[in-house]
Structures are given as structure tokens and as C-alpha cells.
Amino acid sequence: MVSLNWPHATIAVAAAHRPDSPHEFHLRFELTGYPQDAPTVSLWNPIGRVAHPRMRGTASRSWRRLRSPEP
Question: Do 48 and 33 meet the contact criterion of CB atoms below 8 Å apart?
């Protein structure tokens, strides 16, 4: 975990080594309403402190499919 400033959490994920490529990627989770509501996640630019514009919130659709069904 890189940072936790509720309701945002940022993690770094190691990337495969490739020439001229980043060695890690940052993901920023929006946790408002968690655990009742599924979090959303964006690819994060930690230097500019902004979400990648083409990835903003797109992972939330996949995340919802992974959640356990309500009893």
C-alpha cells in the first residue's frame, strides 16, 4: 500500500520488466460507501496526482462481477 487517506487507497503493483516501461503501476481505489458499495479503481498517476483519463472508473464494472451475491 502506498497511501490510505480515507476514502482513497493507493497501491503499487509490480510490472513485468520491459525496456522503456514502468517498473510498477499505481491503482487508486475510491472506497466511499464500502463495504456496502463496491469500490471503484482507476489507474493513477502519483506524480500528477490524477487518474488516467481513459481508465477513470472503468474497472468498477468488473469489480462488481467479482463480488459475492447478497444472501
Answer: no
- Could you give the angle at the alpha carbon of 52 between the alpha carbons of 44 and 61, nearest 5°? 85
Structural domain includes residue 15: yes
Contacts of 8-16 spanning 24+ positions with Cβ under 8 A: 10/44, 10/46
Distance CA 27, CA 7 (A): 14
Please check whether residue 71 lies inside any domain of the structure.
no
**pLDDT tens across 27-70, in order?**
999 999 999 999 988 889 888 888 876 655 545 444 444 444 55
